[in-house]
Amino acid sequence: MRLNTLAWRNLWRHKRRTLITASSIAFGVLLAVTFTGAGDYFYTRMIDAGAKMGMGHVTVAALDYNRAPSSQKRLQETEKLQQQLLALPNVDSVIARIQGQAMFASARKSVGGSFIAIDPAQETANNNLFIQALTEGKMLTDGHGKGIVMGRDLAKKLHVSIGKKVVYTTTDANGDIVSAIARVSGLFQTGVAEVDGRLALLPIHRIQDVLDYQADEVSFLAVNLADQRLSLEIKDAIQQQADFHGVEVLNWQQTQPDLAGMIAVDTSANHISQLLIALLISAGILNTMLMSVLERVREFGVMMALGMSPRRLFFLVMLESFWLAVIGLIIGVLITIPWYIYMTEVGIDLASAYGDNFSFGGVLLDTVFKIRLFKESIISILIGLFSLALIAGAYPAWRAGRMPPVESLKAL
After folding, report:
1. Cys-Cys crosslink for 110: which of 47, 105, 140, 167, Cβ 3.0 to 4.6 Å?
2. Is residue 54, in this structure, part of any structural domain at all?
3. Pair 320, 233 in one domain
């Protein structure tokens, strides 16, 4: 009889034990998909949201701009650079922006903050989070206009509303202090206090005039990608081009180190949790296979007395572990698919626990808990659990192959 067939029949001698062990593997699949899928979903949402709040997934700026931002450090020939960046694969958009610090003043109060100057012709809801967060008024429509869109909390501090005038004071390209007047056209609320209480959006061409910039000079170019996982690859591709040798190219981990650090810590905690679950599952598999081996000591003795080599006996038990893993994975996939579809399309609303304004690392998050798996995550889960089952069965298989035939026949 072939070893494969014999292993399959041996596995079903104790159907209940086999099904319980297979169910533990299936439960491991469900937990791994949930934990890994939650990470893939939320990390992507956080990174994309952070990119839409200004710097993009990849940032092209003047040298040393990220370490010490200044109006005197500016990127030139941006239109030419934009066209080259848009020609790269997986690049969705390249947005020119100017960023700086400013003092905002109304008739009643002055508040320090920061601004991002945008070109309304380039900004959309897909690359600008503040368009989605607009709660009152309208977004800027003219790059040369005198409008200003600010966070709702900043407007409250200044005691201004839609249509009111605001004076902003900043430092221009020559290091001189300059001021200009704007009229509030809209208010946004992201739910992140640091953003809503300090940030304002201004028209880019107006700011270029105020800061004494040329028409093709900006602080940086924000490169938004179709897939945030490609940020390092795109960064390397940009740096290899001759026109970008004299500029600074950074990925989102470098421009948003706080967010990158929090994701790294959370990822480590997630991996530790999954490791503990994996150890529990492997202990169950090890216990099942070891019990099976110890119960069949006399049987193994007879088989070796009839000519079966210890090596073939080892492979027999390993084949039993193989089929146990296959059954567990099949059951796991069957029970996980409905759960995955539900969590991908509907999810669980956590607003009652966290409130509507839930942020992480200075980035607003959706309070609906969902999961999403990348292809490599699916492969890792299946290979990981399958390998775990085989490794857990290795010791019982080795134990079976090491049994002396004579002593095995004496066993009760």
Report:
1. 105
2. no
3. no
Positions in the chain whose pLDDT score sits under 50: 408, 412
Q: Give, to the nearest 10 degrees, the angle between helix 375-392 and helix 310-345.
A: 150
Do residues 363 and 309 share a domain? yes
Predicted local confidence at residue 205, as pLDDT: 93
74: Cβ–Cβ under 8 A, 6 or more apart, which residues?
62, 173, 213, 217, 218, 219
Q: Is residue 167 part of a domain?
A: yes
Q: What is the CA radius of gyration of the chain?
A: 31
Q: In this structure, what token pair is assigned to residue 101?
A: 């610090």
CB atoms within 10 A of CB 31: 18
Per-position DSSP letters for 314-335, written without gaps between them: HHHHHHHHHHHHHHHHHHHHHH
Same domain, 318 and 228: no
Domain endpoint, select from 190, 223, 246? 246
The CA-to-CA distance between both ends of the chain, in Å, stands at 25
364 near 33, Cβ under 8 Å? no
Final residue in a domain of this structure, among 223, 246, 269: 246
- Residue 40, Ramachandran bin (φ over 0: left; ψ between -120 and 50: alpha; else beta): alpha
Can you give the residue range of the structural domain that contains 335? 3-48+260-410
Q: Are strands 248-251 and 110-118 parallel, antiparallel or unpaired?
A: unpaired
Q: Which two tokens stand for residue 328?
A: 């567990």
The CA-based dihedral angle spanning residues 299, 302, 307, 308, taken in that order and rounded to the nearest 10 degrees: 10
Number of domains present in the structure of the chain:
2
User: How many C-alpha atoms does 50 have within 13 Å on its Cβ side?
Assistant: 27
